[in-house]
Design brief:
By secondary structure, this protein is α+β, with helices and mostly antiparallel strands. It folds into two domains: about 5-65 and about 210-245; about 70-205, no CATH class. The chain contains two helices and 18 strands. The strands form eight sheets. The chain has a three-stranded antiparallel beta sheet with strand order 6-5-9, with no helix packed on it. The protein has a three-stranded antiparallel beta sheet with strand order 10-11-12, with no helix packed on it. Strands 1-2 form a two-stranded antiparallel sheet. A hairpin with a 4-residue loop joins strand 1 and strand 2 (about 55-65). Helix 1 runs antiparallel to helix 2. It is elongated, with a radius of gyration of 25 Å. Its main location: other. Keywords: Bacterial flagellum.
Length: about 250
């Protein structure tokens, strides 16, 4: 029996698996459409070649799309959004530094600013007891109002930027990690050269484009159905060939 049938079977199998992985990426984008600061991802595929023939495709990497999301107003004084380049720096449980665009912060029991996942914001300040209001300036300086009405600067928030932010590695909980592809973090003051500014009482929304993701989802479903049909028909042809040999 010609090996071309088994070759076709293997290619259609690879295609089915690749479509499923791509479907996971699209599904994750759609599931996080309303997650603050979320960045959509796309799948990068690569052809598999041997010395003579094409052996199908495989998922080479998943790339984050770091375009700015739309901003919406918020009544919460601890909701901060980055306009332009940059990430908030947070301390992960293992001590490493993570990077996020989600600026919806909370105060923990130690009056430290934390994300919804409990990761502490890295900044050189602390919200003092008796604070009645918090306001962050575009340059990252955090101003607080105390119970007696006095105002003072409680600290400074700096941003981190990367030469290739698409090379960041998704860690989970809307946090990214630096990699060789992204380059080392460059830390600076908001509003400085190549750094975005921070908007108070604002939330950066997800940059997921619903229409393009739904179009991609429908295209994937059709392609998956075609791959399954090819696999089934090739399998049937192999079975018939085997039966003819037995006969």
């Amino acid at each position: 029996m010609s090996s071309s049938l088994f070759h076709t079977l293997n290619i259609s199998r690879q295609d089915i698996l690749s479509r499923l992985l791509d479907l996971d990426v699209v599904s994750n984008n759609l599931a996080n459409m309303n997650t603050a600061g979320f960045k959509a991802s796309r799948s990068n595929f690569q052809e598999l070649l041997n010395q003579r023939t094409l052996e199908g495709i495989t998922l080479a990497s998943t790339q984050g799309l770091m375009q700015q999301g739309a901003l919406r107003n918020s009544a919460n004084p601890l909701d901060w959004a980055i306009q332009g380049e940059g990430f908030f720096q947070v301390r992960l449980p293992d001590g490493t530094i993570g990077y996020t665009r989600d600026g919806q912060f909370l105060l923990d029991s130690s009056r430290q600013l934390v994300t919804a996942a409990g990761y502490r914001l890295i900044w050189n300040g602390q919200i003092p007891d008796g604070t009645t209001d918090v306001y962050i300036q575009p340059d990252g300086s955090v101003q607080v109002t105390l119970q007696d009405g006095t105002r003072r600067i409680a600290g400074q928030v700096q941003l981190a930027r990367f030469v290739n932010p698409s090379g960041l590695i998704a860690q989970g909980h809307n946090v990214w990690l630096a990699s060789e592809a992204s380059g080392a973090a460059q830390v600076g003051t908001p509003g400085a050269a190549n750094f975005g500014m921070i908007a108070a009482h604002a939330v950066e929304q997800s940059n997921v484009d619903l229409s393009s993701e739904m179009t991609r989802l429908m295209s994937l479903q059709r392609a998956f159905q075609m791959s399954v049909r090819t696999f089934q028909q090739t399998d049937t042809m192999i079975a018939q060939a085997l039966n003819l040999r037995k006969g």
